[in-house]
Amino acid sequence: MDLRPISAPLATRLRNTLVQYHSIGDNEWRVAKKTKDATVWRKPSEEFSGYLYKAQGVVEDVTNRIVDHIRPGPYRLDWDSLMTTMDIMEAFDENCCVMRYTTAGQLWNIIAPREFVDFSYTTSYEDGILTCGISLDCGEVRPNFVRGFNHPCGWFCVPLQDYPSHSLLTGYIQTELRGMLPQSAVDTAMSSTLANFYSDLKKALKT
What we know:
alpha+beta; globular; 10 strands
């Protein structure tokens, strides 16, 4: 499947969708989890029957370095405890690619290992950076994995006005794990995963 012709319009549509999420009013979100590193909210997704999650926290580093640790590349596998493999299947340029990755089982393996094939795009946003993605239904599913699907998701990373060496990191995630799963297990896993994402990322940036 040749994805190059659709990469530019897909990237534009994806960016516009994330900017739209970023403008959703505070009154539409409900707190799902709060830790010292981040707050996680949720609201019903318009893409599927689950939730759109929003996570936000201050990270003590500059935007470029933070995003380099989040987007597809050499750093992510080193620190993200949920991600077990990652392969770049096709690179359109340094900021745009298709990747296949797998995640570990969760909640004592009630949620079995998942596999995703995602289109990923990184671009500038105001004074910072937006890195975003969406799953593609392509490629064979590996044995022993369930194919999950990421509806439009992404991370906005902007410097704090008064402390440019610190950044505000805001994520929007709506993952359809698929398979026969109780919704309560999915909700618990998503909130905890997003909160842990911040603490793991902060530890990685200090090394």
